Amino acid sequence: MLANQADNLPLWSDLKERLKPFPVCAVIFLLLSWTVSVQSAREEAFYEETSVLYRWFYLFFLFIWFRVRFYCAWVLAECIAVTAGLGAYPVISKPRSGGGPTDLQALEDIDVSSKENKTVYNFEAIRNILPYDCETSTSVRETIRKWNMCVQWWLVAHVYKNIPVQNKLARGVVLMAISSFWHGIHPGYYATLMSAPFLILAEDLMEKSVRSQLSNAKLIRLYDIISTIITMRCFEYYAVGVFFLQYNEIWRFWSSLYFYGHFATILCILGAQVLLKLIPKPKSDNHRK
Known about the structure:
Strands 1-2 form a two-stranded antiparallel sheet. It has helices at 11-19, 22-33, 44-48, 52-83, 104-108, 131-136, 140-145, 149-158, 168-183, 187-193, 196-209, 217-238, 240-244, 247-256, 260-278, and strands spanning 89-90, 121-122. By secondary structure, it is mostly helical.
């Protein structure tokens, strides 16, 4: 199909759109590569000669370095696929990351042999990262969905939907345990990835107990801004597992920060549940006279 429609592929426009964040990410990556490193955080002096605030800021910049490194790698990987013509499907077939066309009937109806065919294509099927969305999302769930998107689709389609458990938290834990094993056997993968279901639970409970109760647009906007900041701080805290991989080093770094991320997650879950119990439930029609 692609061989007959090569002239219709939006190669250059797609490449330019995908490469927009690359220069900024590459510069940030190079600058931070000279200033922060995981190896420096392994040294004894790092804990003996620095304050909690310094270590928090160090983690802040270390996580930026981590993110932009993957942004650069995945953007370039996408561009390689685009230049090879891989993952191009008609827009009318509604392709999605990892899954390809979602409207198969529309795909079958296209006459690719016709010389007058003006089918419009895109490369959304190989879209793996949306850097801007990752940086500005107000939701843990949405941030995860915009990160490593093709793998996210595969995990949901072939693992999550086949887990024989109804409880969403339990299914999330099983999913992340499998994802952790796929990454490797180091404890750090499990420490990081298996925290995600609990972050999502905390977020959902806070949405129900706080955000849904707000009626003022400015307050909702303020909540979303705070949520964005907290979401990224939680991600950088739990990413310590991926940085250090070994249990003793992970424990050392988290304990040097007094496990603030774990306490914040637990506090949100418990606090939101208390708030939900205090919120008066609307009276049903059965109780009206």
